[in-house]
Structures are given as C-alpha cells and as structure tokens.
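Notebook p. 47: complex prediction with magnesium ion.
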Amino acid sequence: MERTFLMIKPDAVQRNLIGEIVGRFERKGFKLVGAKLMIISKNLAEKHYSEHEGKPFYNQLVRFITSGPVFAMVWEGEQVITAARKMMGKTNPLEAETGTIRGDFGVVTHRNIIHGSDSEESAKREIDLFFQENELHIYKKDVDNWLS
Ligand code: RTP
Ligand code: MG
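Predicted complex, structure tokens below:
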C-alpha cells in the first residue's frame, strides 16, 4: 500500500486548522500511520527542501517552515500520493480550486498551509527524513468492533 508524507505548516497550526485538515484525509478514507507535532531544525528544513536550494524563495521558505510547530504525518492508501496532492490544490492558493485545502484556507504562496510529497521517491525520502520506523504503525480498521 502506498504511503505519503504530509505536513501541516506553521501557519495552519497557528490558525487551528489541524483538525480540519486531518479530518479531510480521514473522511476521504486514508489511514494515518504516523503523526507528531514538531519544531523542525534548520538542518532538517534544508534537507527537506534541498531541491529548492538557490531559488529566490529558498531562505524565506526555510525560515517559515522552522518558525513554529508543524504537524508531520504519514498517510497510507491507494494512490495516496497523487490523491493528497489533488486534495491540497495548487502551490499558489490563488490558483488552487475551491474545495481544495489550499483553495479553501490559503491566501498566499509563502503561507500555503500544507506540504505533500510529489512522487514515490520524495515520499520515501521524506518519510525516512521525518520518522523512525517505530513511529509508523501497521493496524487494521474495523469500526464495528469499537462501537460497544
Ligand atoms: P510543498 O513542497 O511545500 O508541498 O509545495 P509544492 O510542492 O506545491 O511547491 P514547491 O514547488 O515544492 O515549493 C515549495 C514551497 O516553496 C514555496 N514557494 N514559493 N515564491 C514562489 O514563487 C514560491 N514557489 C514556491 C511555497 O511555499 C511552496 O509550498
Ligand atoms: Mg514540493
């Protein structure tokens, strides 16, 4: 089963959007296999966004992502990498469709609410960067057994 790395960025944590965002992925039908609130070190931020090193927005991006707690998550499901990117919407919230996370809650590109892996390679790389193996959980969901 495919896994992706999603991260609720500092702006969304400050704006009390963790529950709203987690709820969307739960309702969609994906499974949360790991999650933690964390403050990212500059070193980890630079590794995570290394593909953007040297770009005009790179320094601002690293400053922003380290500016407060983020909520890091690993989600599992069929084609979850592509599906999550669709649910997030385009990078610039102005271009993101209404109904997407960035389209509904974001205003500007440099505070765009959520990160999501953009390929299988990035997902693997980012999951390894942020989570230890023992922080990821394999379990079955069976609602009926938990009602009474
Ligand atoms: P992310 O990596 O955060 O999920 O976002 P993304 O794939 O949609 O966009 P990406 O091209 O990877 O850019 C990473 C983050 O850098 C900021 N950015 N600013 N000013 C700009 O032109 C610009 N372009 C990108 C955004 O915050 C974006 O999420
Ligand atoms: Mg990206």
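Notes: The first helix runs from residue 10 to 14. DSSP finds seven helices and four strands in the chain.
Next step: compare against the earlier run before touching the bench.
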